[in-house]
Specification:
Blueprint lengths: L4 E2 L5 H7 L4 E2 L9 H4 L18 E9 L4 E4 L14 E2 L7 E5 L5 E5 L11 E5 L3 H5 L4 E4 L3 E4 L8
Parallel strand pairs: 1-2
Antiparallel strand pairs: 3-4, 3-8, 4-7, 5-8, 6-7, 9-10
């Protein structure tokens, strides 16, 4: 065979170094997600092989300051929970706990030391799993080229 392909984002370094493949298929590296952000490099620190580039914009639509709880307008119809909850860009996992609020909402629980966002503020969610999150959307908003259609989305494509 002229082309021997295989591997994936989580194993691309090993696959490329194996000498078996003429190309590798690290498809998710272009976006990243919470799961890949937990991968460690040879130094034992989070890998620096890629940077997070996929975010889901959500708006704070409810805020209970006494309970330190904020409700966002993006739920399971906007971001996949199959590999766990998304993270909130700009906040550590210790600062805010993310709860699935169903199809339409995500609920954020902030620790006492963390300032709460205000109603109407936009927050960026880092998906727990990028592939099924992309599949939920008709298009992406690219930084350099504007709106980009998601051509192969939906079941059975």
């Amino acid at each position: 065979c002229e082309v021997i392909t295989g591997g994936g984002t989580g194993t691309f370094e090993f696959d490329a170094a194996s000498g078996v493949f003429t190309e590798v298929q690290p498809g998710s590296y272009i976006f990243g997600d919470v799961d890949y952000a937990r991968n460690l490099g040879e130094d034992g620190l989070p890998t620096k092989r890629w940077k997070q580039s996929l975010f889901v914009a959500a708006t704070a639509i409810g805020c209970n300051r006494d309970a330190r709880r904020v409700v966002l307008d993006a739920g399971m119809k906007a971001v996949s929970y199959d590999s766990g909850a998304p993270r909130v860009r700009g906040y550590s996992e210790a600062a805010v706990a993310v709860e699935n609020g169903g199809d339409e909402h995500t609920i954020l629980h902030f620790c006492p030391e963390t300032p709460l966002p205000s109603l109407g503020d936009q927050l960026l969610l880092v998906p727990g799993h990028c592939d099924p999150t992309v599949n939920l959307h008709d298009h992406l908003l690219g930084v350099r080229s504007g709106q980009v259609p998601v051509a192969a989305r939906g079941a059975g494509l």
